[in-house]
Amino acid sequence: MSLLRRLLRDPVAALGLVIVIFAVLVAILAPWIAPYPEDAFESHLLQRLREPSVEFPFGTDNLGRDILSRVILGTRNALAVALSVVLASTVIGIPIGLAAGWKDGWLSDILMRLTDVFLAVPQLILALALGQLMAPGLGTAMVALALTYWPFFARTVFAETRRLRGALFVDALAGIGAHPLRILLLHVLPNAAPAILVRATIGMGFTILTAAILGFLGVGAVPPSPDWGLAVAEARQYLPEAWWFPTFPGLAILLLVLAFNLLGDGLRDAADPRLRRSRR
Amino acid sequence: MTGPDLLRVDGLAVQLGRASILDDVGLVIRPGATMGVVGESGCGKSTLLRAILGILPRHARIPRGAILFEGRDILSDQAASARGRIGFVPQDPYLSLNPVFRAGTQLLEVMRRHAPGNRRQHRAKLIELFRAVQLPDPEGALDKYPHEFSGGQRQRLLIAAALSCDPALLVADEPTTALDVTTQREILALLRRLASERGLALLFVTHDFGVLATLCEQVTVLYAGRVVESGLTRAVLDAPEHPYTRMLLACHPDRAADLIGIPGTVPAADAQPSGCRFHPRCPIAHASCATEVPPLLLTEDRSVACPWHHEPLPEMAVV
Predict the structure, then answer these.
(1) Closest to A169 (Cβ–Cβ): which among B53, B54, B98?
(2) Measured between CB atoms, does A272 come within 8 Å of chain B?
(3) Kindly report the CA angle at B67 between B63 and B68, in degrees rounded to 5?
(4) Which of B53, B92, B98 has the CB atom closest to A187's CB atom?
(5) CA-based, 20 to 30 A from B208: which of A36, A157, A183, B312?
(6) Per-residue pLDDT averaged across A191-207, rounded?
(7) Where is this gene product found (chain B) (predicted)?
(8) Residue whose C-alpha is closest to residue A246's, from A30, A23, A61
C-alpha cells in the first residue's frame, strides 16, 4: 500500500495511472458507450469520409464507420493483446529465471543461453516471418511478441535468484528441510516482484505499440476488426484530405503507450527509493 | 570426561566435492562456557559453525564425525530438532532476514516452531527481548521491514531472534565485522552480558584476538581445516605453542613491534598438503612433518598438534 501512496505522490506517474484506469474502463464498457457499436463490422458507404461533426465527433472512415466508436471498440483489442502477451511472457520467463538462477550447471547454462538467443531475435522480423509461415492475424502477432518478450522476465528473475540463493535466510530454510520450490516461490520470488511489475507495465505499452506497428504492416489484426494500427494503415491513401482518419486512432495509441510508460517509470521510482533522485 | 558436555564435536570431517574443508575437528563446550574459534580466512571456521547449525551447502558431505548437542547426535535426522536450543548470530545482518517480510513475521515463524506458548506470548517475549538488546522502539520493531533498521540495530534484532527460543548455546559468526568500531564494542558487551545473565554457552568465531581475549575463556585455533591448538585463552595468547599460533600472534599489529607476515598462503581446500597441513609454511618443519599427521598432544594446560612445539622459531623476516 505504501507503494501506491508513493506512486500517487508523483504527479506524472499518477497521470499515467489515471489514463490506464480510464482505458481499462473504456475497454470493459466499450459495447455500451460506443455511439455506434455495430460499426465494428457494418459499413455505410453513403456517409464515407465525413469530417468530425456533432453526429460523428471523430469523423467517419473510408467505409462510413464512426471513428469514435471504432477507437473505443479498439481499446479492448489493444489491452487484451498487451495483457495476454505480458502474461504469457511472465509464465515462460519467471520459471526459467528461477530454475537457471537457483543452481549452477548445464541446465542453468542452457536456459540462459537460450534466453540470450531469444533476446537477440528482432521482434518485428520474427513477427513478419511467422505471419508468412502461419496465417497472418492477431494470434500470430501475439505469439511473436510473447516469444521475444519473455527473456526480459527471465533475466530479471535470474539476477534476483542469483543474488539471494546464498542469503542466510535461504540457507536456513534449506536447513530446516524446506523444498526448493517453496523457497523459490514463497521467499525468493517476492523479492523480484517489484522489478517484474515494472517490467510488465513498461511491456504493456511496448506491446501495444508493436502490435499497432504489426497491424499497420498487415501482419497483425485483419479487417474489419477495429484495430488502431490497422486504421492508421487504411487511412494512408486518403491523406491529406481525411486528416481525422489516422489522427484519432494514432492519438489513442500515443496516449495509452505514454500512460503505461509513465506508470512504469513511476513504479520503478516508487519501488526503489534510491533511484528517485535520478529524475528531475 | 568430567561433567556433562553441552556441545561435543568429535572427529568431524566436511567435504565439498573433492575438497576437504574440515578434517578430524574436535571441540567441547560445557554449559555456560565460552569458546572462541580463530584462524585465517578459509580455515574452515564458518563451515564448522554451519555444520553445527545444519546449514551446510547442499552438496557438502560429512564422511566422518559426530556432533553431540545435549548428548544427542544432531547430524542424525531424528535429533536435528534439538538444534532449536542453539541460537545463531550471523556475520552479515543484511541478508539474514528476507527483505520482503516484516521482522516480526519472520521471528514469530521461528518461535512457532521452536518455542512453547501462543502467538501473543511470543510477541510479548520478543518485545521484552528487544528491550533487553536495547533496540529502539521495541513495540514498533515487529512491524518494521528489515531495511528500516540500521546495521547495528539489525544485529541487535538478530541477537534477540537468536535468544527467542531460550537457547542453551549461542553461536556467533564474527557478529561484529560488518559494524563500525563503536557499535562493535556495544554489541560485544551486550553478548557478554546476555550470556552471563542467562547462563548461555557461547561459541564465537572470530579472527580478532582482542575480541577473543575479552569474550572467550577457551580458544580453538584452526588451520586449513584442522585443530592446531586449543586451551585456555589466557594461556594460549600468553604463550602460544604451535608454530602457526606463534606466527599468527606475531602478526597481530598490537602485539608485534614490527609487522611480520607468515610466508606463503593458506593451501587451497582441494590441494591440502600431506602430513601436517602447515608444514610447507613452517620454519621448523622436520622431514616427518610432510608424511605424518601430527596428533593432538596434551600438555599441562592445552592440546597442541605439533611434536616440535618447544623448539624456538628462527628470527622472522620483517615485512
Answers:
(1) B98
(2) no
(3) 145
(4) B98
(5) B312
(6) 91
(7) Cell inner membrane
(8) A61
Say if A40 falls within a structural domain: no
Is the Cβ–Cβ distance between A198 and A225 less than 8 Å? Answer: no
Provide the CATH number for the domain around residue A215: 1.10.3720
Q: Look at residue A224 and tell me if it is in a domain.
A: yes
Complex-level ipTM beyond the 0.90 threshold: no
Distance CA B15, CA B125 (A): 39
- Report the number of distinct structural domains present in chain A: 1
Tell me which amino acid residue B234 is.
R
Determine the distance in angstroms separating the CA of B81 from the nearest CA of chain A, rounded to an integer.
9
Residue A142 lies in a domain: yes
The answer to whether residue A190 neighbours chain B at the CB level (below 8 Å) is: yes
Distance, in angstroms, between B283 CA and closest chain A CA? Answer: 39
In a domain, residue A91? The reply is: yes
Distances (CA, A) of A78 to A58, A69, A73, A75, A196: 19, 14, 9, 5, 21
The three cell numbers locating residue B295: 596428533
Contact between residue B188 and residue B214 where contact means Cβ atoms under 8 Å apart? yes
Position B167 pLDDT exceeds 80: yes
Determine the structural domain holding residue A74 and report its residue range: 12-31+58-165+196-262
What pTM does this model have? 0.78
